[in-house]
Design a protein that fits this description.
Elements: E1 10-16, H1 20-33, E2 38-40, E3 49-54, H2 61-81, E4 87-92, H3 93-98, H4 100-105, E5 111-113, H5 121-147, E6 153-155, E7 158-162, E8 164-165, H6 176-179, E9 184-185, H7 188-200, E10 205-209, E11 218-219, E12 225-226, H8 228-236, E13 243-247, H9 256-264, E14 271-273, H10 281-286, H11 293-306, E15 311-318, H12 325-338, E16 342-347, H13 365-388, E17 394-402, E18 408-412, E19 418-422, E20 431-439, E21 443-448
Parallel strand pairs: 1-2, 1-3, 3-4, 4-5, 7-10, 10-13, 14-15, 15-16, 19-21
Antiparallel strand pairs: 6-7, 8-9, 11-12, 17-18, 17-20, 18-19, 20-21
The structure holds 5'-deoxyadenosine and iron/sulfur cluster.
Amino acid sequence: MSTEPKLGSKSVFIRTYGCQMNVYDSERMADLLKPLGYAKASEPDQADLVILNTCHIREKAAEKVYSEIGRLKRHKAKKAEDGETMTIAVAGCVAQAEGEEITTRAPDVDMVIGPQAYHRLPELLAKAARRDGKILETDFAVEEKFDALPARNMSGPTAFLTIQEGCDKFCTFCVVPYTRGAEVSRSLEAIEREASDLAEAGVKEITLLGQNVNAWRGAVPSGGEIGLGALCRRLAGIEGLERIRFTTSHPRDMDDALIAALGEEPKLMPYLHLPVQAGSDRILKAMNRGHTAEDYVGLIDRVRAARPDIALSGDFIVGFPGETSEDFEATLALVEAVGYASAFSFKYSRRPGTPGAMMPKQVAEPEKDERLARLQALLDRQRREFNENQMGRVLPVLLEKPGRHADQLIGRSPYLQSVHLTAPKSMLGSIQPARISGVTPNALAGSLVEDGEAAA
Ligand code: 5AD
Ligand code: SF4
């Protein structure tokens, strides 16, 4: 007898072989799938997802699994005739031991998950589901997707330009890969066309946007592919465009070409938002970040070697499940080692459907509050220090909008700091040198520098 899934919901059947450990793992997998809408089915034939959680201890265990897959194959084919799908996953120790051989011998298996990886089940399912949809999306719909975005966001001389969407990184705290889908890049041609249009309309500064902006890749007409560094250099060639920024970058996608461009392209502003989230390798691993604290600090060293004055910004999460006070101290130590010009910091919040939400050792709220306060005090101090270091310097300021007082304009320094100064409205939209004479918590005060004075 089969359990009919409720309309709109999905069902999973898990067959468990072997030891208590496997029984426990199967329950955990069922728990992980619940927030994704999977109810338990009592028979495999109608289930949307069948997991064989295998055991390698006894002889012939693998053979048993293959014959079970043979049976499932028939159900899968029958479902396919009705236009439905069945995902077959092999988990546990046979999966670990046989790995690739399973997919070669049994092509109907969609997923092979070792015992150390079952907590990644939601991620693997999302990836498998997207593989079907994605082919369609990249073939036809990428431009449509970007065209459907809100019209270019232009205010005065600055504009945002979306070049990339989605994320394949699957940090275990984050819903973006589930809600926004896979990483897709807008075409080079469409980006260049829009950037030129913006420049013609009087835009001086564009900020290239993407959830993983530095994962952007584009084909060039001469053949081959380029990344964000080369894209920025090409956009810098557009007449009238004076400044280029990009956000948000991922440490794993920072390549040498982008670092070199930051050092060499004068129109690329010295500001980098590069989230690290935490400073403890144990927590970074649990977050599935794909880098260590040392990798990140090494990357920052390379960026600073290319562009010594760069303003660094980051995102931080305190109180990720299992974060001990030593782990948190490691975050503070990383912040001390890097030195940020600005930052965003958050208390971990459980997002249903993400692996983090199911992790044990959730951190108590008062503990998170205390850690966040300590982290923010340190980051505030660093921001103040960065701003104070600009005192007396002459910075080029892009004058963006009128200020609160008559004759006052507000602009931005290359480091993205707000600069308030006295200047005529006719200067709106231009870049002017200004000497920095004051620092408030959120802005700088400056005064226009007369011709010739800037060099003094
Ligand atoms: N809890 C707290 N912060 C989160 N972020 C993303 N997901 C969560 C979460 N579940 C933060 C990360 C990310 C930024 C955009 O939001 O720091 O970089
Ligand atoms: Fe992707 Fe950023 Fe979310 Fe990680 S935090 S999954 S990199 S969007």
